[in-house]
Amino acid sequence: MVEQGGRHSRVVLVPLPYQGHITPMFQLGTILHSKGFSITVVHTQFNSPNPSNNPDFKFQAIPDGLSDDDISSGNFVDTIALLNVNCEALFQECLAQMVKQQDPDDEIVCVIYDEMMFFSESAANQLKLKSIILRTTSAATGISRVALLRLKEEGYMPLQDPIMQDPVPRFHPFQFKDLPISKFGITENYLQLIINAYNTRTSSAVIWNTMDCLEQSLLAQIQQQYQVPIFQIGPLHKFAPASSSSLLMEDSNCITWLNRQAPDSVIYVSLGSAASTDKKELVEMAWGLANSQQPFLWVVRPGSVNGSEEIELWPEGFKEAVEGTGCIVKWAPQKEVLSHDAVGGPSFGDQRVNAMYVSRVWRIGLQLENELERGEIEKAVRRLMVDKEGEEMRQRTKNFKEEVKLCIGEGGSSYNSLNNFLELIKSI
């Protein structure tokens, strides 16, 4: 345990209940636990985590008030807004009870909450507890979201097709098409969510799951705008001992399949934990991959294809065409997959900002500019996996890997930032 003036220290974590947010929050909790802190996770009933995956943590569920229709709508903006309305009083009540019942030798020192669960700050403030924000996205995504607010003020909304290829004024290297527009458009609810998420209010610090070697200038720009310290301590999974926070059952058979493939030969395709597609796009992706004749690992999450049952997903003849070449699973242990020697072409295409940085700034991947079409997919896969262009991308990726090692190694920027963050918590 970490001693704080003769007492132990407990940190309360409040994750947003989506996989891409739960995982880094639990990684942060694992890091803190390894440094001696006790961890309590306060979570919603929606996408409730499995406590057995993290037996060293305590878990406390609060009702979230979401209906089946709220959850199935796929409108993440409205769902997150509802969570912040429905959970605030219940979280404050839960936190007050925890403070009342806490052991004097194991007192709560701070609340760390996901940027989208901003109701947590008010509750912590009412109980005179310090709060800290965890941002799970890139710094570039943060800046691009703020750009949307500026563009709204300057009368650019709604964005029109004729300007989508134009550069965004004062936000180089973004073009309008790169901005993080939700599938429901840039609604007032979305803009208000951005305002709430990026307002630090009374929180003491911001943790960012990124690193200097990728986003140094962006982080410096952000720090100038903040009155509180920023700690860039990514990639969090490199500091955290191995643990699982997956909401879905992982199919480890794909690792056995990868073990049989040649180094740098497999393209990994995944829509992630929240994005969805339709049957037409799935068919185009399927034949694009098949026609490329390159080995692929494809994650097709249950329910990720709109309006289709699993039994009718695949076009006739597809599975026979890719037998021995492709491996299709419902969910994969992504960290193991991405670090596997056989994987030569990860796909990061479900987020506009990430896709732009991967393709145009870091130049370690390709972005499909137009709608998904099998011929374009086939050409992109071959460019990435066969052509010299792809070989150069993989070399740049390996160079980044070495830079990341320096960031997280002793004396590196992420290593030092993590230590500075731990000192901050100890001083609270």
Automatic annotation (TrEMBL):
GO terms for molecular function: quercetin 3-O-glucosyltransferase activity; quercetin 7-O-glucosyltransferase activity. Transmembrane segments: none annotated. InterPro entries: UDP_glucos_trans. CDD domains: GT1_Gtf-like. Belongs to the UDP-glycosyltransferase family. Keywords: Glycosyltransferase, Transferase. The keyword Methyltransferase does not apply. Gene3D superfamilies: Glycogen Phosphorylase B. SUPFAM superfamilies: UDP-Glycosyltransferase/glycogen phosphorylase. The keyword Glycosyltransferase applies. It comes from Acer yangbiense. This is Glycosyltransferase.
